[in-house]
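_Backbone structure tokens_
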Amino acid sequence: MTEPPRQITLAEWDSRFEAGTAAGWTQPDYGGPLGRHIEDGDLRLSRLLYDNSPAALNLWNFLLTEEVRLQAARAKGDKIVGAMKDLGTVPVMAYSLPGVTAFYPDGAWWTPCLMEFSSGVLHGADSLGIDESFCPVRAMLGAFAAEKHFPAPDLLICSVGATCDDFSAIAQRVNGLGHPILWWEIPHRRTPAADETSLRLPGGFTCPLDQVVFVQSELERIRSSLEAVTGHRLTEYALRRGIQAANRVRRALRRLRTMTFTARRCPLPALELLIAEMLAIHFCSDRPAALEVLTGLCDVVQQRLAEGQGYFSEDAVKVFWVNPVADLRVMNTLEQCGGRLCGTDYMFCHALDDIPENIPPMEALARTALADPMAGSAIDRAGRICRDITRYGSEAVVISRIPGASHCAIEGTVIAGVIGERLGLPVVELEVPPVCDAFMPTLNTRLGALIETAKGRRTS
């Protein structure tokens, strides 16, 4: 059932699934026809275009069955840990313990897109005083209020400090609904003074030793709470094994990104790459399965590269994308306008870098938390973006602003300014609502203009 890479509709995928099943396709326990998720309310799926590989089908089915895994974990008696905002640190600790499933309630921010506003979570947030002037992650509040989309966690943990003000306000409302939160602080990462001991962080940033010591003390509080909830000690040995397992997932994702972004012809579309990157944050509530899904995608890309197969033409403009989009359809639109994804910063690059394995594990996790690009200045983040642009040979940059998000007010302008000054590349800032159908003509125009500008620079 192998065939050249091609983007197909949901209906085509279901027909392909039927033929594949008849030919003997094996399916994981979360497998099945993609169209069945429409019955669960994921209406947006009918408007997307998908990669036609079985590995891509596994990716989508894995993503869309997370609630099923969480409910199964609750029925089995596992402890469920909700981690909010830190994006890649607390889940590593949680999965180092037996009988624990961790997830990010933050992920509810895609619910209005997937369900095309039919879920009612935004209306629920409105009724609690968190209106559309806030980031779309307010959908999380509506999900907690409705007690839908995920089971109530046994332990709910949220980072504050150098994080989004909107998120902190929304999390406080969640706490007020009767879901007590264990708060922990990430300080604003700063450049060490001349007389301070400087430590290097994953991804290339640096910070003073005392900041690492402080964050490590905060993570020790989390360790104590995890031990109290689960009844198991979170030993140094268990943490080391948990870090090693997390790094295997991160390395698989890094391999996938590198192969795709450096290929002469695009071997995997932008939409599947976006979903794949999300797996590294909390493994979509099943760490071994997340590794299997990413490994399967790597195998497909490697085979396509070996056979010279790919999407679009070789002269498709290489676009670096900053910030995740609220509406997944926009990633298809980029390619329809003549671009291909060639580098990303979806606000959690620290979840893609290896966690150090040659230092004490709690210190390693503290360094990883401080490597969050959002915990430092926008100029620092822009510097990392510029390094990645140079590495992948990106020709243009899209910065997708998140409606209502406090950090997007000037951050995009700062990043665009640094990119223009250092690299001279064309940059466009877009604001992407949860469902952008009404804005699609404008998005097409602006993305099309960016693509044409980048092509014009090739001959100038």
Summary: The mean pLDDT is 95. The radius of gyration is 21 Å. Residues 250 and 352 are 5 Å apart (CA to CA).
